[in-house]
Design goal:
Elements (H helix, E strand, L loop, with lengths): L5 E3 L10 E5 L10 H13 L3 E7 L8 H20 L3 E6 L2 H9 L2 E6 L5 H13 L3 E5 L7 H4 L7 H11 L29 H5 L18 H14 L4 H4 L12 H5 L5 H9 L6 H24 L11 H9 L11 H5 L6 H13 L4 H13 L4 H15 L6 H10 L21 H7 L2 H14 L1
Parallel strand pairs: 2-3, 2-5, 3-4, 5-6
Antiparallel strand pairs: 1-6
Helix pairs in contact: 3-4, 6-12, 11-12, 12-18, 15-20, 16-17, 16-18, 17-18
This protein binds a DNA duplex through helix 6, helix 12, helix 16 and helix 19.
Length: 454
DNA sequence: ATCGGCTCGCGCAA
DNA sequence: TGCGCGAAGCCGAT
């Protein structure tokens, strides 16, 4: 049986080479990584060593020092873990597909992992087109490979849920580990010294406008520790409390998932087998991890314009257009928003949490975005503002989930609701609703504590 | 505190 | 063709 997670990206063959190359880019982890284990098995079959390579580009779209610092912490974990397994790891500065091609020049075969955003797809197809040897891609990011789950853009979680739920069981097992049979120690390959932060990140064009955060430490080790803590103390009551922004019923897995530092299948197994919380708690968490996360992947995969206003559903675009001239009570500039200087203390707290933690409580993300729609001159400007702030400050920004979450503010994967000013039939959220359903004053206190501790 | 109405497109049953 | 239903909506009536 062919594994649908493995795809050939070109029609070339294995060639004479010194090693099998695993070009690691999206899934930055040395365990629970199907591409890595597949590369080792392939190398063993060919009687060759395996080399793992990572291309570090200083101008990754929308990335700044906050993201790079988190990523570097994770790469150090990868480096340690691979060294313990006696697998060669090479990190080089450069455009990732070019790094892969350069190292791939001496490879018998290239294996890569999978990413869904426009540039990630282009990187892989460019590389596969130019490589002299066979290139195979292994799904390590989605649990159910995107085209196996559905062959089209899904309109909502309701239509996607049964499809992904039916198939997930086929893809949840831990990938069998393999031991490399041939050592790569004789190969002479340049590698950045990951311990030397200045030489790795001190590249002039790297955007240093946003500071690293202390709230999150990157890497597989930190991710697993955080997950255990969540399961131990916050899974029970999750379903009831997750929309209370003053509380901390969150797993905080999304930054780690964004960089591939933890495997989604690993999280599913841990939650499922934990015996903690009620069935409802576990189901509600897994619905977010599996259905919502993979619906976002479905969206960016099938909608070429996933990062634009015209990628929204027709009904949402037209209702927002019909209300584009509605009177706004307030209109804030990007600068005023970014400085958290609005009349709304709850909104300001959310903006401050975003800036200093690199994170925002899920419920507040919705409220925060809906208010930007209400306070912008046009829905298109609001869309740009929400996306820009999202990608600049969130460690988990620039992810398929970011684009789906931003879209949701403007009606994506949602249904119409009674017409209101500005929003039309897009779902609105108000300060009254926030006070009614949540305890925003507790949230403001939480953020104040966070700011003091910085 | 809880309930119904608001509104559109999808997928399924008929 | 009809019908039920949907990630966290709002508001006003009871």
């Amino acid at each position: 049986m062919n594994d649908p997670r493995i795809q050939q990206l070109n029609r070339k063959h294995c060639v004479e080479g010194q090693y099998v190359l695993y070009w690691m880019q999206q899934s930055q982890r040395a365990e629970d990584n199907p591409a890595l284990e597949y590369a080792i098995r392939t190398a063993n079959k060919l009687g060759l060593p395996v080399v793992v390579a990572f291309g570090l580009t200083p101008d990754y779209p929308d990335a700044n020092l906050r993201h790079y610092t988190f990523m570097l912490q994770g790469l150090r974990d990868v480096s340690r873990k691979l060294a313990r397994r006696r697998i060669r790891f090479v990190v080089q500065h450069g455009n990732p597909p070019e790094v892969a091609l350069k190292l791939g020049h001496n490879a018998a075969e290239i294996i890569c992992d999978r990413g869904y955003l426009r540039h990630q797809r282009r990187w892989r197809s460019d590389m596969a087109g130019e490589a002299k040897c066979l290139v195979e891609q292994v799904e390590c990011d989605a649990i159910v490979p995107v085209e196996v789950a559905s062959n089209k853009r899904e309109s909502s979680a309701r239509t996607f849920r049964p499809k992904v739920f039916r198939l997930q069981h086929l893809f949840l097992d831990r990938p069998p580990t393999a031991k490399p049979k041939v050592s790569a120690s004789g190969l002479s390959l340049n590698c950045l010294n990951l311990k030397d932060e200045d030489s790795v990140l001190g590249v002039p064009i790297l955007d240093v406008s946003v500071k690293p955060v202390s709230f999150f430490k990157g890497g597989t080790h930190a991710a697993k520790a955080r997950l255990s803590r969540f399961i131990r103390s916050r899974l029970r009551g999750y379903s009831e409390n997750r929309n209370q922004p003053g509380l901390d019923y969150l797993s905080h897995m999304s930054p780690y998932l964004h960089f591939g530092q933890i495997s989604p299948a690993y999280i599913v197994r841990k939650i499922r087998d934990s015996g903690k919380g009620t069935q409802k708690d576990r189901d509600s968490y897994l619905d977010e991890l599996i259905v919502r996360r993979e619906l976002a992947i479905n969206f960016v995969h099938y909608a070429d314009n996933y990062d634009r206003f015209d990628g929204l559903p027709e009904w949402a675009q037209s209702t927002l257009q019909q209300h584009r001239r509605d009177k706004r009570k307030k209109i804030y500039t990007l600068k005023e928003l970014e400085d958290a200087r609005t009349h709304d203390p709850y909104w300001n707290a959310a903006m401050n949490e975003m800036k200093s933690a690199g994170y925002m409580h899920n419920y507040m993300r919705m409220y925060w975005g809906k208010q930007i729609l209400a306070w912008s001159l046009t829905p298109e400007i609001a869309f740009k503002t929400v996306l820009e702030l999202n990608n600049k400050y969130f460690i988990d920004g620039r992810d398929p989930s970011s684009y789906a979450n931003v879209g949701w503010i403007f009606g994506l994967h949602d249904r119409p609701w009674p017409k209101r000013e500005i929003f039309g039939s897009v779902r609105s959220m108000t300060i009254g609703g926030l006070k009614r359903k949540a305890n925003p004053d507790a949230y403001v206190k939480k953020v104040e504590r966070l700011l003091r501790s910085q």
